[in-house]
């Protein structure tokens, strides 16, 4: 019988990035749990130039609604601009990772989200969007 496989993270239709899969359910749970405070970095494109007070709100943490309608206070986010443009790109690091958290935080700060990708995983020059890489069994 094969091992169960667990995704570490989630990507929806409008997001892109590396989705790590593991057969270690405990590890997957630890990495995904918001209370574990594992840093998750995203690169986000926004519409127009956000006001500095809006960026300050993100850096300070704010109250957002969850899927079930409850309100939660986010931890402060680390934010830095990675590409100046009419629609700039920012690197945003969270220590939570709630469902659609980036988009909800941006919306709450009156910043229009355009695109995002998970960026803190190891990158491979041979990996392209939509492709799969077999597991590396070097340590087994």
Structural class: alpha+beta
Q: Low-confidence parts, pLDDT < 50 over ≥5 residues?
A: none
Listing every helix as H and every strand as E from the N terminus to the C terminus, the arrangement reads EEEHEHEEEEHE
Give the strand content. 25-35%
Give the % helix.
Answer: 10-25%
- Find the CATH topology of the domain at 36-118: Alpha-Beta Plaits
Question: Could you outline the blueprint of secondary structure elements for this entry?
Answer:
Elements: E1 6-8, E2 15-16, E3 20-22, H1 25-32, E4 40-47, H2 52-60, E5 63-65, E6 71-73, E7 78-83, E8 89-94, H3 101-108, E9 112-118
Can you tag this structure with a few keywords?
single chain; 140 residues; alpha+beta; Alpha-Beta Plaits; two-stranded antiparallel sheet; 18% helix
């Amino acid at each position: 019988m094969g091992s169960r496989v667990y995704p570490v993270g989630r990507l929806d239709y409008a997001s892109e990035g590396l989705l790590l899969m593991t057969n270690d359910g405990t590890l997957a749970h630890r990495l995904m749990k918001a209370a574990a405070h594992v840093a998750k970095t995203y690169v986000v494109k926004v519409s127009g130039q956000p006001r500095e007070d809006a960026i300050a709100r993100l850096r300070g943490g704010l109250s957002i609604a969850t899927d079930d309608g409850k309100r939660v206070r986010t931890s402060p986010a680390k934010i830095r601009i990675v590409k100046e443009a009419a629609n700039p790109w920012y690197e945003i690091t969270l220590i939570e990772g709630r469902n659609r958290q980036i988009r909800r935080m941006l919306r709450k700060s009156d910043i229009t989200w355009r695109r995002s990708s998970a960026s803190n995983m190891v990158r491979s020059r041979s990996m392209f969007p939509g492709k799969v890489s077999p597991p590396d069994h070097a340590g087994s």
